Each structure stands twice: as C-alpha cells, then as structure tokens.
Amino acid sequence: MKAVGGRVKARIENHHNFAWKEIHNGKEVIVHRKGATPANENELGMIPGSMTAKGFIVRGKGNPDSLNSASHGAGRAHSRGECRNLFTQNDIKKELKLKNVTLMGGNTEEAPMAYKDINEVMNAQSELVDILGTFQPRIVRMDK
User: Fold this and answer.
1) Phi and psi for 111 in degrees, rounded to 5?
2) Model pTM?
C-alpha cells in the first residue's frame, strides 16, 4: 500500500486449493476447495478474472448446496498445454498494453485469453455470493 500511496480499508483473503475442517449437515468433514474459495454467510471474498479482466469483491451467502463455497476465479477456457500452442509472449504483451496492465513474471500458460468470461462466471454463482464492488488490475505479479 505504501508503494501506491494507499491505505488499507479492509483485508480480504482469497484462500483456494486448501482443505478445512468444517461442520456440514451436522457432521465434521474435511472440505478441499480446488478452484473454489470459502463463501460463508457474510464472509468477504475476492474473485478475480484474468490478469487483465476485472475482479469482484463479494460477500458470501453461505449456500449449503455449495458447501459455503464460490469459484476462486474465472476458470480456464484453455489448458496450460493449449496456451503454449495458442498464444505467444507478443500476444500477451499486446493484451496487457491494451488493458494498461503491468505484468511481473508470468508466461503463456497464464495468458489473459486463457480464461473464461468473468461476467458469465459471476452470473452463474448469484446464489453463492453478493457482489459488493469490482476492481481493475493494473499491476500483476505471477510466478514465472
């Protein structure tokens, strides 16, 4: 926050690909959210699109049919292998420039074009979360 001259208004965690001990239907179970994030009632969360698509700040509805979960992002439209064949670093640079995003790290496997339309994904989970706001990525840090 110091680097961009901002201040923290709220902290939101976006855990995914973790396992938790939880109570569901009166039983203690282990819930492993692969590609999902907790969306307990009134829990704040963040659901990103791609490195160039908007993300969403959400409040969980605690839907028991989803084990109090929601997607943790847009999800892939193309596999990592497909991305290596479909997209070049130049394709990614053009998309980043078009959307005014600075990328640190990353590779063609994480190309912005590899992901589903985040608006469609959000519309499909209206029973899981309420949308509180959106944000547009400007600086993205990814592993190489």
Assistant:
1) -50, 140
2) 0.87
